[in-house]
Design brief:
By secondary structure, the protein is of the alpha/beta class. It has one domain: Thiamin diphosphate (ThDP)-binding fold, Pyr/PP domains (Rossmann fold, 3-Layer(aba) Sandwich), CATH 3.40.50. Helices cover 36% and strands 16% of the residues. It has 9 helices and 7 strands, in the order αββαβααβααβαβααβ. A 7-stranded mixed β-sheet has the order 2-1-3-4-6-5-7, sandwiched between helices. The longest helix has 19 residues, at 185-203.
Length: 253
């Protein structure tokens, strides 16, 4: 650092000094940074275990300087359950996309939440299969065009987009559910606060914690990063509203 300058930010030691492969404008890199800042601030680098399945997050272990276990497509919740039960005092999270968590991994997601497994879901919802060719996902919006819905999603044929935050908040053993986004600086700061709350509740052994991120995919949405932010504001957030859907009740003193 140059003499006379004040250091106001530096890369957290929980992120490796590696250039990320994510497409320009993608929220994956932003969420990696926010999550690892929280891990460092909570001094949990040596006690955190991530689980990342197949999808755009499959190389997260190259960027997160923590212990990370790769899982088969859709099986992150099952793997995270096993790890957390063996290491109950570790901070454990799964990091999953919508095709993984809400399609091939629906059963694992639902039953882990129903059991109240004490780990944190980080759910990146960009409404499309980003890595495998831009196919329609369970969260693809009505009318949204994808490689497998070239004329737009038709509810009469494939149903409505799944609102996973609302769904899992109904389970009695789920402690905390919030939907966030990184489409603005203010929302990114809120996303970081939500991640910290989820991790804190997990360490208090309150049950399952679930953070859904209303995200983007400029490459498969066939738009610029700037245009993807407008799409989130105008189309995604009206259907997937941000906010807390469930939080532990405060105990009276």
């Amino acid at each position: 650092m140059k003499e006379g300058y004040e250091l106001i930010y530096q890369r957290p030691k929980t992120l490796t000094d590696t250039r990320m492969h994510y497409c320009p404008g993608c929220f994956h890199s932003t969420m990696h940074k926010l999550m690892m800042e929280v891990v460092e601030e909570m001094d949990l680098q040596e006690n955190t275990i991530g689980v990342c399945p197949v999808g755009c997050s499959v190389f997260a272990y190259e960027y997160m300087n923590i212990d990370v276990q790769e899982a088969a497509h859709g099986r992150a919740a099952a793997v995270a359950t096993g790890i957390k039960r063996i290491h109950p005092d570790k901070l454990v999270f799964s990091y999953q996309g919508d095709g993984d968590l809400a399609a091939i991994g629906t059963a694992e997601t639902i039953h882990a939440c129903n059991r109240g497994e004490n780990f944190t879901f980080i759910f990146i919802n960009n409404g499309i299969y980003g890595m495998t060719g831009g196919q329609m996902a369970p969260t693809t919006l009505v009318g949204q065009k994808t490689s497998t819905s070239p004329y737009g999603r038709e509810p009469a044929k494939v149903g409505l987009p799944l609102k996973m935050a609302e769904i899992v908040s109904r389970f009695g053993r789920v402690a905390y559910v919030e939907r966030v986004s990184c489409n603005t600086a203010a929302n990114a700061r809120k996303a970081k606060k939500a991640v910290r709350k989820a991790f804190e509740y997990q360490l208090q052994k309150l049950g399952t914690t679930f953070i859904e991120v209303a995200s983007n995919c400029p490459s498969q949405w066939k738009c610029t990063p700037e245009e993807s932010l407008d799409w989130i504001k105008d189309h995604v957030l009206p259907y997937f509203p941000l906010g807390v859907f469930k939080e532990p009740e405060k105990k009276e003193k």
